[in-house]
Design a protein that fits this description.
By secondary structure, this protein is mainly α. Helix content is 56%, strand content 12%. It has helices at 2-25, 27-42, 47-53, 70-79, 105-108, and strands spanning 84-90, 95-100. Helix 2 packs parallel to helix 4 (70-79).
Amino acid sequence: MQKKTRNRLINGLLAILLVVGLVLVFINPIRNQLVKMMAHRQMDVTAAQIKKNQHKKASFDFDKVDSLDTKQIVNAAIKGDVIVLGKVAIPSVKMALPVMKGVSEDTMA
């Protein structure tokens, strides 16, 4: 009976280690996918929204911005409250990026 409990405990710990290892291995692709998803979501902006966004206030204090980590990227993806002013498209490299107002951690994510 004690051997079964010990085996279950070891199997449980191995499963947890496997999941943690997979998350650590795939954290960069997950982060990159989140950034792509946020960029595409912010590209859906109308001319009326852009005109309205031009009058909103934003912070331009570079000292308040730290380097980004995965947690900040996820928080920015969930909140999605950045001020979009337009978009830049470079068809030769198949790239389209939103232009955002201000310098904040959410804007940089």
